[in-house]
Design brief:
Methylamine Dehydrogenase, Chain H, four-stranded antiparallel β-sheet, mainly beta, 28 strands, 374 residues, single chain
């Protein structure tokens, strides 16, 4: 009788599970948001087969200005994009689940300048937008046809930070909802605060009920939620750190703060994106500047504390954003300044990343969203 070591046995079981899951994985459309004006015309689409890792270009899905952040409604029928410019707007599109093409529905003013983030509530009836330039958030009702109505709520952030170049005023940099839709959040890089709002879906309102605080000068950028709903993680752009928080009854409490940088690194730093793996065991954060890498962390399931577990080069320059595909097997990195999107395989046991060899040429990519194809 052959005896297997526990770790090897666990690895085998997880590998079998991944292969079994891959066989039943549907195809997805991967939508890539970009900055236009550098060879890009808007949102691009690829057909992605998780079972094989194959990607097929579908070309330009929709022409629109600076769609630097995308969000998809829960039905998979509608996609929303910010138009990151001085005037500020948010655009709505209908998704053709067969061809991947997008049909423009309408565009509404975002309520501020340079909107940079979006979120859709779990009912698909509201879209939350963060305006970086003016430091505000707006809430938009979604009409029956998927288009957006005028803002039903608006919140102007206040405050500044200790970095006069980057924190002279508020800069809302993220938008998200709690899993139960009772609350909404926005990390403000300029004010060093995570705004917490009570969200009333019946009235379409946002009411500020508290704040999560980071170390002065750290500049919180994006949030990621643990699948268990108990932990929240924020990547700090100016400090290149990850802050871990407990979340309960409308309150964020700090667990710890860890660096995303390799030990001994003293060069330029700029944290960008953050994500928790669907299994809740791994966390990833991207570094721009000279590093251009993805930092890897293991999450303690009891305390929520992230522990550094290495890093890997992003395969390009300025990994502004990345997304984990719905199967949990792949991580797509959008390298803005090298005009490429690089696909990594996620090890199901260790969370480590391995390049798949798939590198897509996309002009100034900055956002990735997935939708199941029919």
């Amino acid at each position: 009788m052959v005896r297997m070591r526990p770790l090897r046995f666990l690895t085998l079981i997880l590998a079998i599970a991944v292969l079994a899951g891959a066989a039943g994985n549907p195809a997805y459309f991967a939508y890539i948001g970009t900055y236009t004006g550098h060879g890009s015309q808007g949102i691009y689409a690829y057909r992605f087969e998780p079972a094989t890792g194959e990607l097929t270009s579908l070309g330009l899905a929709a022409q629109t200005e600076n769609p630097s952040f995308l969000a998809v409604g829960p039905s998979g029928t509608y996609l929303y994009a910010v138009n990151e410019n001085e005037a500020g707007s948010v655009s709505a599109f209908r998704i053709d689940r067969t061809t991947g093409k997008l049909t423009a529905l309408n565009s509404v003013p975002s309520g501020g300048s340079s909107p940079c983030a979006l979120a859709v509530d779990s009912s698909g009836k509201f879209v939350l937008a963060a305006n970086y330039g003016s430091g505000s958030v707006s809430l938009f009702p979604v009409k029956a046809d998927g288009s957006l109505g005028p803002a039903s709520a608006f919140n102007q952030h206040k405050g500044s930070g200790v970095n006069p170049q980057r924190q002279a005023g508020p800069h809302a940099h993220s938008a998200s909802f709690s899993s139960d839709d009772r609350y909404a959040f926005s990390a403000d890089l300029g004010a060093d605060l995570i705004y917490i709002y009570e969200f009333d879906a019946a009235l379409g309102t946002l009411t500020t009920v508290g704040y999560g605080r980071v170390t002065p000068g750290f500049g919180p950028r994006h949030l990621a939620f643990h699948p268990n709903g108990k932990f929240v993680y924020v990547v700090d752009e100016l400090a290149a750190t990850v802050g871990a928080f407990t979340w309960r009854a409308g309150m964020l409490r700090t667990i710890t703060v860890v660096s995303t940088l390799p030990v001994g690194y003293r060069g330029p730093k700029s944290g960008a994106e953050i994500a928790v793996h669907p299994n809740g065991r791994f966390l990833y954060a991207s570094n721009r500047g000279q590093l251009n890498d993805i930092a890897i962390f293991l999450i303690d399931p009891v305390t929520g504390k992230p522990t550094p577990a290495g890093d890997i080069a992003s395969g390009g320059i300025t990994p502004r954003s990345f997304s984990i595909d719905p199967s949990g097997q792949y991580l797509f990195v959008a390298n803005q300044d090298s005009d490429n999107l690089v696909v990594f395989h996620i090890d199901p046991v260790s969370g480590q990343l391995t390049p798949t060899g798939k590198t897509l040429t996309v002009p100034a990519p900055v956002a990735v969203q997935f939708v199941a194809a029919e």
